[in-house]
Design goal:
Layout: E1 7-11, H1 14-25, H2 30-36, H3 39-52, E2 58-62, H4 63-68, H5 70-81, H6 120-125, H7 128-139, H8 143-149, H9 158-163, H10 177-193, H11 196-213
Helix pairs in contact: 1-2, 3-8
């Protein structure tokens, strides 16, 4: 459909990616996050397959490298895409975006930061159940897929091994409008999936909205 598209493939440490996913959308509930979308099981193989292909061009950027040296990597991305680099691309002012996306850290920073690179470490160090859960998921992944994404399996757990028992558990998340919205959406979505009267009512409401909004 888009034969001349430019692909920017951004990968991230898989445990960090899952932790961010679970905390941003599922209130830190790893099991619930996995049941809704087995993020790593689905996308690690898919992205690795794309990175191995040679039919279309792409640039591969690791999240950790990007936030460590944003000027260099955004300049490279711009050169690949064919647009001029502008400082405002990485000094964006910490303006939160409205909507149901992930605004968790948007307003806290005005440019890329390394603060979230190893945010998952104290989270797993303080919770053996979460640690075992993530270990089980990682063992399901193909080691070669992880290497292709830029993360050697033998190095995945090094940040956790280095801190040992010295790290304190992360503070609980503050309750805000975004978290309340996510809780409501997840609860209603789970109820809708069960079928019954609630699902029927939603379908009728959707039909009514389609009719009312039809041009």
């Amino acid at each position: 459909m888009f034969p001349d598209a430019k692909y920017v493939v951004l990968t991230r440490h898989p445990i960090a990616a899952f932790s961010s996913f679970a905390n941003s959308f599922f209130d830190g509930d790893y099991v619930r996050a996995q049941s809704h979308n087995p993020l790593l099981n689905r996308y690690v193989p898919a992205i690795a397959a794309f990175l191995r292909q040679h039919e279309v061009s792409f640039i591969h950027v690791r999240y950790e490298d990007l936030v460590q040296d944003p000027e260099t990597w955004v300049t490279r991305i711009c050169a690949y895409v064919g647009v001029p680099f502008e400082p405002g691309m990485i000094t964006y002012g910490g303006k939160a975006r409205e909507g149901l996306g992930d605004p968790t850290g948007v307003a806290k920073h005005d440019r890329p930061t390394t603060a979230s690179v190893e945010k998952w470490v104290p989270e797993l160090a303080a919770d053996p159940q979460r640690l075992q859960f993530m270990q089980a998921i990682i063992t399901q992944l193909d080691p070669e897929d992880l290497r292709t994404l830029g993360y050697a399996p033998e190095d995945l757990w090094k940040p956790l091994e280095e801190v040992g028992e010295k790290t304190a558990p992360p503070p609980p998340q503050k309750l805000n409008r975004y978290r309340l919205q996510r809780k409501a959406i997840l609860t209603l979505r789970e109820q809708a999936k069960k079928g019954g009267l609630f699902q029927k009512a939603l379908k009728k409401a959707r039909l009514a909205c389609d009719i009312l909004l039809r041009e």
